[in-house]
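User: I'm preparing a small set of examples for a lab meeting where we compare how different chains pack in three dimensions. I only have the primary sequence for this one, and I'd like the structure in token form so I can line it up with the others. Please keep the answer compact; I'll paste it straight into my notes.
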Amino acid sequence: VMTFHAYPVRAPGTHYRQLNDAFGFQLTRAQQRVAMEISQDMAKPVPMLRLLQGDVGSGKTVVAALAAILAVENQLQVAIMAPTEILAEQHYLAFAEWFASLGINTAFLSGRVKGKRRATQLQLIADGTAGIVVGTHALFQEDVTFDRLGLVIIDEQHRFGVHQRLALREKGEGDGYMPHQLVMTATPIPRTLTMSVYADMDTSVIDELPPGRTPVTTSVMPD
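Assistant: Understood. Below is the structure token output for the 223-residue chain.
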């Protein structure tokens, strides 16, 4: 049996609390519970593989940011991959704003980033200057080298193939270590189906919307 190791991430520190304060709002009970499940997973010396499911507007990105700061506090890099340029840019703007106040650099990589700008971003990623790296499929291209990738976050994970997810994870493999993985989706998946499709994946569900959010209605329409 192959045993995979991961860098165990120590308990939340100063940056974690500062980021929590920087949000400017109180996390819902569901967000707090899910964030705790993730931090407990990341504290283990085996790689986390967790699916985070929650409706649009339930605050998955905030939970992902808390997972990211945990890794960065432990001198690990974080890669956040989104399926489209627009979604990747949205994540980049949010993460860059949250993390800049903590003195943490965020890099951005997509198909549109070319030439000199691309070379600069690749350098920031390779030498570890960028603690957070946000992008599209461009993140797992051959010329992208990470310094010490410890956490991979994949948004709208059903939009990526298994091999694409593995290609990004492999960027962090070395010395028998593998990055922790958090995959996110807004698509409601019945628990039994989740367990059969992702047999080796733990599931966290944000089942509560922040105050004032309009509930999302999911409907099935006949042909």
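A couple of notes for your slides: The CA atoms of residues 25 and 210 lie 10 Å apart. The longest helix spans residues 85-100.

User: Perfect, thanks.
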